[in-house]
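User: I'm putting together a teaching handout on how sequence relates to shape, and I'd like one worked example. Could you take YcxB family protein from Shewanella eurypsychrophilus, show the sequence you're using, and then write out its predicted structure as tokens right after it?

Assistant: Happy to. First the sequence, then the structure tokens directly below it.
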Amino acid sequence: MTVPFSFKTEYLLDKAHFSECFDESVTLDTSLKAYTKAIGFFFIGVALLLTGMNAFASFFVIGLGVLEALNIKFKKTWWLWRQMMSKAAGNNVTLTVDEQGISTDSFYVKSEILWCDVSEIKSTQRGFLIKHSGTSYISKQVLNEEAISFITSKI
């Protein structure tokens, strides 16, 4: 008779955790193609300005182009700032990995991902990307060797 697997731990949602989540789950594209929309807004705004259209609307479109370019350039900084300003930042999260799935419980959020709902588990250098109806990230720093091998066996 085998004992069902269960692992429970607690960790803090801090800047280091959010930074790791971003680094492991987001692919940054800084090529010229990523700036296409920003360049388009900028040139449309300049064209509107040169044709004598409403100057306010022209500068607004130019401003949209600049904001879009800054959004691409500072994507991580902007995302981290939003996460640190959220009410969940600074709170402890209880993570449970067992035979049913993965559940997280904090003061603000309770979620559960059942193994039957998981479509893909991708191992990264520092954690796991769990794909279900969305994508979730679990850091290997908060897991022990048994939990890491259990999740790896689900791949």
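A couple of points you could highlight for students: The chain has a mean pLDDT of 90. The chain has two domains: 6-26+91-153, 32-83.
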